[in-house]
């Protein structure tokens, strides 16, 4: 099969999930191409990309010279670039809708389901949350709940996530700064103090295939992102976790969101990652697994059914 990866130029070769997918594709004899979002074009209604053939080695990539490829000749196209979920990201989804291939994940549903907004489909599992640019409403929410988290709506990786838990802090000024920086509403959410219960769960075709606990490093009070130095541990899912996975997974499957990651703290669903979910390397190392084989088996089965 021919496989194309739409991704960022900067990749951590050791622990990036995209690299693991590439290596497994190569092991299976698939032809792999790489291109960035800026290499994607729509010419006479045909999606094309200035792409490079990829050969993965032990610690790096080998690339061929770039050539234009029609994406509809691919069997699988991966959308693996990180947010921000901005107009460039959205434009790629419009173009990729025209591709006759298995796209992971479905570009229409990526566009329809911004990750931090997608959580609002499941109010039975979520903390009290406000999404707004209204500074008066933000102040009122803070006065009601006392201890809240502010975070950008369309960023990722813990960027500009802030905790406001003192009444003498001018939350309106802080909120205004974040709103102006990102030029969009922000999320204000009740803080869940059970930070050490943070779980990242990977879902494949709507079903959980692995989970880790993310423990923040000593310099982080509220952020458990691995890119910020969090360590990972084995974890078991309880009944509440399984209920969340079943409910969320069913909706993701309907939408063609094949590979996703959900974040749970305590009893609450915090985020659903469908743009570039990670965690495969960490789960593999903790549990001595090769999740990429299970994942690729699923992808190949989907291709055969199309």
If you had to describe this structure to a student in words, what would you say it looks like?
This protein is α+β, with helices and mostly antiparallel strands. The chain has 3 domains: 2-107, 3-Layer(aba) Sandwich (Rossmann fold), CATH 3.40.50.20; 128-190, ATP-grasp fold, A domain (Dna Ligase, domain 1); 194-294, D-amino Acid Aminotransferase, Chain A, domain 1 (2-Layer Sandwich). Helix content is 30%, strand content 28%. The chain contains 9 helices and 17 strands. The protein has helices at 17-27, 87-96, 107-112, 115-118, 135-145, 171-182, 239-254, 280-287, 291-305; strands spanning 2-6, 31-35, 40-43, 46-56, 61-63, 67-70, 76-79, 102-104, 129-132, 148-152, 162-164, 186-190, 199-204, 207-215, 231-233, 259-265, 268-273. Strands 1, 2, 3, 4, 5, 6, 7 and 8 form an 8-stranded mixed sheet that branches. A 5-stranded antiparallel sheet has the order 15-14-13-16-17. The protein has a 4-stranded antiparallel sheet with strand order 9-12-10-11. α5 packs across α6. The radius of gyration is 20 Å and the shape is globular. The mean pLDDT is 93.
């Amino acid at each position: 099969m021919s496989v194309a990866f739409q991704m960022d130029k900067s990749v951590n070769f050791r622990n990036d999930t995209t690299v693991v997918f590439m290596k497994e594709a190569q092991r299976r004899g698939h032809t792999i191409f790489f291109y960035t979002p800026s290499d994607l074009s729509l010419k006479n209604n045909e999606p094309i990309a200035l792409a490079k053939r990829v050969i993965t080695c032990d610690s790096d990539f080998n690339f061929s010279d770039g050539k234009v490829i029609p994406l509809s000749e691919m069997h699988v196209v991966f959308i693996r670039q990180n947010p921000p979920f901005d107009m460039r990201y959205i434009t790629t989804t419009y173009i990729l809708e025209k591709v006759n291939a298995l796209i992971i994940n479905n570009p229409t549903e990526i566009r329809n389901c911004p990750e931090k907004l997608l959580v609002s489909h499941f109010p039975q599992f979520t903390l009290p949350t406000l999404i707004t640019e209204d500074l008066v409403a933000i102040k009122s929410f803070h006065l009601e709940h006392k201890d809240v988290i502010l975070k950008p709506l369309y960023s990722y990786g813990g960027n500009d996530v802030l905790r406001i838990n003192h009444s003498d802090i001018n939350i309106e000024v802080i909120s205004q700064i974040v709103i102006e920086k990102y030029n969009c509403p922000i999320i204000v959410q009740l803080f869940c103090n059970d930070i050490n219960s943070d779980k990242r769960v990977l879902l494949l075709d709507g079903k959980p295939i692995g989970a880790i606990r993310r423990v923040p490093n000593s310099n982080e009070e509220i952020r458990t992102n691995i890119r910020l130095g969090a360590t990972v541990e084995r974890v078991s899912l309880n009944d509440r976790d399984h209920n969340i996975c079943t409910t969320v997974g069913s909706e993701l499957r309907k939408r063609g969101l094949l590979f996703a990651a959900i974040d749970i703290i305590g009893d609450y669903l915090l985020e659903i990652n469908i743009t570039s979910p990670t965690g495969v390397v960490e789960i593999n190392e903790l549990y001595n697994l090769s999740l990429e084989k299970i994942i690729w088996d699923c992808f190949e089965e989907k291709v055969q059914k199309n």
